[in-house]
User: Fold this.
Amino acid sequence: MKNYLGRIVLLVEDYEKSANFYETNFGFKRIFDVTTDVGQRFLHIGSEPLDSLGIWFLKADTKRQRERVGNQTGEQPTMVIYTTEIEALYERLKSNGVKLKTEIIKTPEYAFLHCYDLDGNEIVVTELKE
Assistant:
């Protein structure tokens, strides 16, 4: 038996804007994008390999869901994204106008920064040292 994480679920205001944010800034790709005959859309994005952890966007439809967009984790970070080139990614985020909470913080074991996506979800970006 093999168990592994598949997708984290994010409530979003707009599927396309959210997907474009992660594609443009983190290089993620659309893994799965289907709209059912009743109009429900399933949009998953992520990186290679395709069975690795990814994000499943769900459009916030109800008042309660819309209140949760950008704050599903009670003002704590929503996710951690690992990178092998934090300096280059930091420059990309800055040039794309991504809201940054911190500059790069370096320790002997890792470097990290915090930023926000379009919906206000806090993301921790981390580069682990070899």
